[in-house]
Amino acid sequence: MARILWLALSALLTTALCDYTITLTPSSALLVTDGNTTLVNNTAVLAGGQNTTAEPLKNATEGLAYAFLTPTIAKITLNTSNAFHGARFSASESTRFYGVWEYPFNNRIDNANISFELKGVGNNVGVNWSNARAPFFLSSAGYGVYADTLKMGSYDFTTPGGAQFIFNSSSLVYYIILPKGDGGLKSVIEQYTELSARSEIPPTSGLGPTFWSDDFTQDFHGNVSNAQENIQDLVNHLYDNRIRATSIFADRPYGSGNRSWGNFDFDPAQYPDPASFIQNLTEVSGIDFQVWIANRAQYGTKLYNASIQNHWLFPDDHPVGGLGEALNLSIPAAYNYFDESLKYFPAVGVKGYKIDRGEEGEMPDYVQNEQMALFLDLAYDSMVGTWGKSRFYNFARSAVDRSRAKTHVWNGDSHANFTGLAYSVASGIRSGLISFGIWGSDTGGYTREGALTPSPEVWARWMWFSAFSPVYELMLGTNHTPWYPPYDNTSTLAVMKQTANLHADLLPYIQSYTNDVSKTGLPIIRALFLEAEKDEKTWDVNDSYFFGSEFLVAPIVNAGGSRSVYFPNGPSKSYLEYFNKTRVYSAGTTANISSPLTSMPVFVKQGAIIPRGDVYQGNAKWIQGWTPDLRLELYPSFDVPESKFTYYGGGAETEIVLTTNKTDRSATVDTGGLEFNGWGVKIVWFLKGAEEGRVMDMKVHGDGGSLKVTNIETLF
Ligand SMILES: *[C@@H]1O[C@H](CO)[C@@H](O)[C@H](O)[C@H]1NC(C)=O
Ligand SMILES: *[C@@H]1O[C@H](CO)[C@@H](O)[C@H](O)[C@H]1NC(C)=O
Ligand SMILES: *[C@@H]1O[C@H](CO)[C@@H](O)[C@H](O)[C@H]1NC(C)=O
Ligand SMILES: *[C@@H]1O[C@H](CO)[C@@H](O)[C@H](O)[C@H]1NC(C)=O
Ligand SMILES: *[C@@H]1O[C@H](CO)[C@@H](O)[C@H](O)[C@H]1NC(C)=O
Ligand SMILES: *[C@@H]1O[C@H](CO)[C@@H](O)[C@H](O)[C@H]1NC(C)=O
Ligand SMILES: *[C@@H]1O[C@H](CO)[C@@H](O)[C@H](O)[C@H]1NC(C)=O
Ligand SMILES: *[C@@H]1O[C@H](CO)[C@@H](O)[C@H](O)[C@H]1NC(C)=O
Ligand SMILES: *[C@@H]1O[C@H](CO)[C@@H](O)[C@H](O)[C@H]1NC(C)=O
Ligand SMILES: *[C@@H]1O[C@H](CO)[C@@H](O)[C@H](O)[C@H]1NC(C)=O
Ligand SMILES: *[C@@H]1O[C@H](CO)[C@@H](O)[C@H](O)[C@H]1NC(C)=O
Ligand SMILES: *[C@@H]1O[C@H](CO)[C@@H](O)[C@H](O)[C@H]1NC(C)=O
């Protein structure tokens, strides 16, 4: 009885607080209004026999339905006799539209002047094949639009203040999503991902440090004579240099047969004993192992022969022996064959796939999204049966939004120079805006031209960017390994060790945000405007971001070692330089910051709570009797009476609360009884003067866990 009454009351409250309405105007536009204010001008719904002939639907009573599904989500359904459907939106000319593609056209984080299909982008400036995508855009006017389809379509943002999409579909459902309360665009992303899909929490090993080679079957050193020994050589160097690692993956080639792919095996000449080798890697060395896969049938392989016999391949317009056509996975027998064949890999201990291609012309473009989603489903299925959820790491180059629950992403074949790095930073921000939140880039770039690329400078800058990316993955081998010529370079190796080990130590923080990604869809790499929506100066910033909400990260993406950094208004009154903890910058200002290759510009907010520490042993077998070590860095400020952080680790959440009191000059942390695997947590206060870096061991268990420091001066 009480419960029913409560439900009725809360329903009344929501309707009373939100009074968005949607109406159809005589000119067939859909307007979303709040009182007298038009929030969304959906100028036209479009229908036509071709994507080039789609026109505003004249008789809107035919095949159009619209209504609020929740107080903040309007659902629009289109179903007419036409083959193509879409919608057009307009707003003031200065309105920005974000989302749709991971690839940063013109190195921008918005879509100004872009018209392109919802498919893989291909070879382009900075990065080739940066291909996560979503039929979803965010508008700086304060709303989002999600077209719920896997059909092929195009988006057009070439009219200033305008956005348009048209899909090859005789029916189309799209949603206009408005902010919830004062949640701003973050709440739009949250509602959108609830409608489409959210990422699964990855295993810690997937977040890295992860090392790989484009070809472990070459570039042998010392006594190495095959790929298996080559990987062991890598493992040994990581161990000897005390460089933390959690995963290694083998790109193609590693199998037998034509171009190594299609026989679902390891080449016995390169991997004489794969099962025992992988078992040693995971159990003895503490490193998980992944392999490359793709939906392509290489001529003459088992996959090709079965497909030819059963007519599973898309029509072939590639030369025989080339890259191979894709299987049409809409055919259940083809899907099942592929699914069964892949089971070999988890059976020998492989814990995830690097999933390549799917957008290189091996199938008609108009099925790219549907087919890629099917392939990511089967790649997921083949792993989850053996390992269980969140216990393997699949990541793809090409993925559409509904596959978010099935795969994470990397940003494709970045170019190994500063252009590639700058575009990778922008693509990381864009990937976050479409909620592919567990993301990494090939550290140093993938496409190399000439010897000694990346240059040691580019490589070091990129390593720092990866330290502050959700995933740290680094390609070495094939003549660019820091400990072999032409590098043999102690400074590159030193930065690799510094950044990989820093990333490993940040895992408690990063993991806490992977929990957010999976629960709310909010990314870890956040465009500045997501945290500082009211500060217009943040709307176009393509080279710095919030990492979670406590760090402001400004990678150096140009030669020379300095850059300008804008400190956004809103999240904090001032920002403290993170590594040296001396310089403080006021919000709303811009500063020129220099940084040696052994550091990068990173700043923390007032009141920041940052969990760090050694919570995953991985390959660190050099530490005898390893036990987890978790510590909380606290950055109290009297400007912030209370701040909170939800720590996630070992499958559980703990809320940590930091309060300050200016009157008695104190700060108090309540750790919520936080512990890790039965171990207590260290508290590190960052305060002025003698108190600076005061470390307190707090082995509190269960109840309480509150600690107060008095007579303090805060750093900022
Ligand atoms: C809407 O406009 C009408 C007429 O201009 C005005 O009377 C009314 O107060 C306005 N309502 C709101 C909520 O602004
Ligand atoms: C909606 O956009 C159209 C096209 O730009 C414009 O003609 C119309 O006045 C706008 N309506 C509102 C209410 O802003
Ligand atoms: C619009 O479609 C409805 C439903 O099919 C029909 O009844 C009506 O006559 C049409 N109006 C016009 C102007 O064509
Ligand atoms: C579209 O309308 C047709 C005819 O009314 C109906 O058969 C079909 O199920 C509808 N499709 C969708 C996706 O609603
Ligand atoms: C868009 O293109 C127009 C004309 O080509 C150009 O003037 C304008 O600067 C471009 N805008 C952006 C944001 O690139
Ligand atoms: C990457 O794209 C560039 C064009 O931007 C092209 O010249 C190059 O061949 C591509 N590289 C690879 C490896 O595909
Ligand atoms: C129409 O589809 C073709 C591909 O078939 C595409 O190249 C083009 O961009 C699309 N145009 C529009 C306006 O959607
Ligand atoms: C639209 O999809 C159909 C299959 O549903 C396909 O035959 C046609 O070529 C596609 N049109 C375009 C322009 O891609
Ligand atoms: C696995 O490790 C054991 C014990 O260290 C060793 O004897 C064996 O040769 C290793 N196997 C492979 C395939 O590396
Ligand atoms: C990076 O490489 C690309 C492709 O080789 C080239 O077009 C671009 O100018 C290079 N950028 C820099 C900063 O060297
Ligand atoms: C931090 O301080 C150290 C030593 O004082 C210096 O070497 C380093 O360059 C500084 N780093 C930054 C980012 O200022
Ligand atoms: C802050 O400290 C003063 C002095 O001890 C105390 O009176 C006051 O209640 C404290 N404020 C809060 C919010 O705890």
From TrEMBL:
The lineage of its organism: Eukaryota, Fungi, Dikarya, Ascomycota, Pezizomycotina. It holds the Pfam family Glyco_hydro_31_2nd. The keyword rRNA processing does not apply. Residues 1-18 form the signal peptide. SUPFAM superfamilies: (Trans)glycosidases, Galactose mutarotase-like, Glycosyl hydrolase domain. Keywords: Glycosidase, Hydrolase, Signal. GO terms for biological process: carbohydrate metabolic process. Residues 212-511 form the Glycoside hydrolase family 31 TIM barrel domain. The keyword Disulfide bond does not apply. Residues 521-610 form the Glycosyl hydrolase family 31 C-terminal domain. GO terms for molecular function: carbohydrate binding; hydrolase activity, hydrolyzing O-glycosyl compounds. InterPro entries: Gal_mutarotase_sf_dom, GH, Glyco_hydro_31_C, Glyco_hydro_31_TIM, Glyco_hydro_b, Glycosyl_Hydrolase_31. This is Glycoside hydrolase family 31 protein. It comes from Paraphaeosphaeria sporulosa.
